[in-house]
Structures are given as structure tokens and as C-alpha cells.
Amino acid sequence: MSTQKIIAGYPFISYSHDTYETSEMIAQAASFEDWMEKRRTVRDFSDKAVPKEVIEHIIRAANTAPSGAHKQPWTFCVVGDPAIKKVIRTEAEKEEYRSYNSRMSPEWLEDLKPLQTDWHKPFLEVAPWLIIMFKRIYETDDNGKKKNNYYVQESLGIAAGFLLTAIHHAGLVALTHTPSPMNFLGEILQRPENEKPFLLVPVGYPADECWVPDIHRKPLEDVAVFY
Ligand code: IYR
């Protein structure tokens, strides 16, 4: 049972968290690592339906992410309607065609070769759900005054991490897709002026035949420095 106390006029509740003996803690941390290691970015989706209820849980989980001054400066737009998915695919492919054919540098195109991506984005129609994260740059108060949110980019990045982890935990797969520029998403989904597209995440089951690049993660020594 939680108890409340008032500190400088603001309510606080007492908090405790499950803790483990050292050996169990190591086992927990290691098994989570193994399970996270199994997550892969997927582009070959099945069109098999995923219940809306699952997506609702996943978004509630992402919504637990910490954010600047707890402003939760995000909106998750969820598209399951095939007609809207089709428009999104058409507009994304228009931009991606231009990107692959004139906007991206030769170095960038070279770096993408191991992933074998191109401007075709069938997954935008095949995946049963598209979750589009919008960042809320500012809020407008009752008097119409604009108030900027804090650390919006960082907050959205953390929430995206939670979202991807929740999708993995549900036994589903996702792609972190950033068609560029992606202003068309705000127009199609009729988002207000204070919201800008951040990330488009198709979610679903992997296709029966699903291929991912044989690429590997950097070892700990290359990504961590202990002092
Ligand atoms: N947005 C393009 C290109 C692309 C860019 C990066 I950086 C990637 O890691 C993968 C793709 C696309 O989605 O194809």
C-alpha cells in the first residue's frame, strides 16, 4: 500500500522496487541481455492481424518512459486502416525515391548496401499496424499561450526504445522507419501545428520467409568505458 506525503506543497508517494540477491541479479541481467539480443529490425512483415488491444498495451508501456519535466511530449498515431496505409506508402515512396536517387550521398548509399534497402516500402501496407510517433514541440494553454516542452528529442528517443522493447516482448517485430522528409505524415494524419513526425514504426508478425542482414553488434569493449 502506498503512503502519501506532501513536500513543499506537492504530493509524493513512497516507492519500493523488487530487488534481488547478487547472483539472482546477475542471472536476471544476463537473461534480459540474451532476450534483447534476439530483437532484430525487420522489413519482411506478415499481413496477419494483431489485436488492437495488444497495440494499446504496447503504447501504454511506451508511455511509461521518462520525459523532460514529465511532460510526455508525444502522440502515438496508430494506423490500421488499409486506405490510410496506402496513402502513407505512396507518399513515403515518393520521398524515398527522391532520396535514393538524388538526396542521399554516395557514402550514405554505400553504408546502406549491407541492409539492401531501396525506395520500395511494401511493409507500409503489409504490416497490420503503423505506429507513428509525433513529438509535441510545445503545448498551448487555455489562454492560447505557447509553452515549449523540454528535451523533446531525448524524451521521444527513450519512449521509442520502450516501444520497441514492448513490441519485442509481445512476440512481434518492428522497423524503425524514418522516411525523409516526413512532413507528409502530419498532413495525412491531420496533426496540429505543435506536432512534428518523429518515427514511423510498422508492427506485426514476421513474414513466413523473413530475411535480416547478417550484421553484428559491437562488443562491450567497443561501446563501454568503465572508470
Ligand atoms: N530512410 C531510408 C534510408 C535509410 C536510412 C538509414 I540511416 C537506414 O538505417 C535505413 C534506411 C529508408 O528507409 O530506406
Automatic annotation (TrEMBL):
Residues forming coiled coils: none
Record flagged with keyword Flavoprotein: yes
Keyword Oxidoreductase: yes
Signal peptide: none
Pfam families: Nitroreductase (PF00881)
Domain of life assignment: Bacteria
Molecular function via GO: oxidoreductase activity
InterPro entries membership: Nitroreductase, Nitroreductase-like, Nitroreductase/BluB
Keywords of this entry: Flavoprotein, FMN, Oxidoreductase
Protein name listed in UniProt: Nitroreductase family protein
